[in-house]
Amino acid sequence: MSLPLQGHHVAVLLGGLSSEREVSLVSGAACAKALENLGAKVTRVDAGRDLAQVLTAVKPDVVFNALHGEWGEDGCVQGVLETLGLPYTHCGVLSSALAMDKAKSKAVMAAAGVTVPGGGLYNRHDVARDHVLPPPYVVKPNAEGSSVGVFIVREGANTPPQEVVAPSWTYGEEVMVEPYIAGMELAVGVMDGKAQTVTEIIPRTDFYDYDAKYSEGGSQHVLPARIPQEAFDEALRLSELAHAALGCRGVTRSDLRYDPVKRLLVLLEVNTQPGMTPTSLVPEQAAHLGTSFDQLVLWIVEDAYARGSAGGKAG
Known about the structure:
The protein is an alpha+beta fold. It has helices at about 20-35, 50-60, 75-85, 95-100, 100-110, 125-130, 210-215, 230-245, 280-290, 295-305, and strands at about 10-15, 40-45, 60-65, 120-125, 135-140, 150-155, 175-180, 185-190, 195-205, 220, 250-260, 265-270. The protein folds into three domains: about 10-90, Rossmann fold, CATH 3.40.50.20; about 100-115 and about 180-290, D-amino Acid Aminotransferase, Chain A, domain 1 (2-Layer Sandwich); about 120-180, 2-Layer Sandwich (Dna Ligase, domain 1).
């Protein structure tokens, strides 16, 4: 019996140039293995500045984008793939760029009726000088993922985080500052516009940071989330609404916070290139609903084929 991707050549983009390179290498390796299981010819491409030349030489039928973070997730690589006329997975140029910019995506989502945190963009030197919001609040880069460069300023803190003005800070001059929402960390995968289920995340660290997301045992995932049905349904609704408002396609993951005391549910951001690692949330939700990892990867590729290279600019 022939395999579903027999005779198809898939280039898997992994690694890349961002601070999330290591995670992308793991995501890409897992997806490449799944594609080979499905019968595809797979070329692994560590995406660098010469990506256009490499793909021109490789001549794939379709590109599986397993990059995370800046350049791979913000519309830049998507633009290269559009120029080459190659079908590719996940979101297109505009929705990728929009979702990666926290300030702009919050404005678009809020206009569509999605409940988002308050706060705004501030110069990092102003943030380091004095509290720009009353503690507790969260400081994070405006265009990074995987909780890179995120700081929680607790109630009673005397000084704001000085790390934002350290020589090692490479995440831009403006940072997003938001009120801290107490309570539970939630995640919702959205596949083809339809919310899957809600995962409750219990981090082993102070909060759901980079280590909690990607380290073995860094966090506990409770599936389905132990929240009231009304909040569960609202998390699904907000995630679908955000996915549509940003013009997303394929698979995305929304991150939310739920305060059970105030019964407050807010959507923090939409990830257009959700992790595909062994501890990742979207594959876990798919498995919970009866879709294996290989089947999920197959659907993502078939979705890219169905759209072709056309339409990427819009979505």
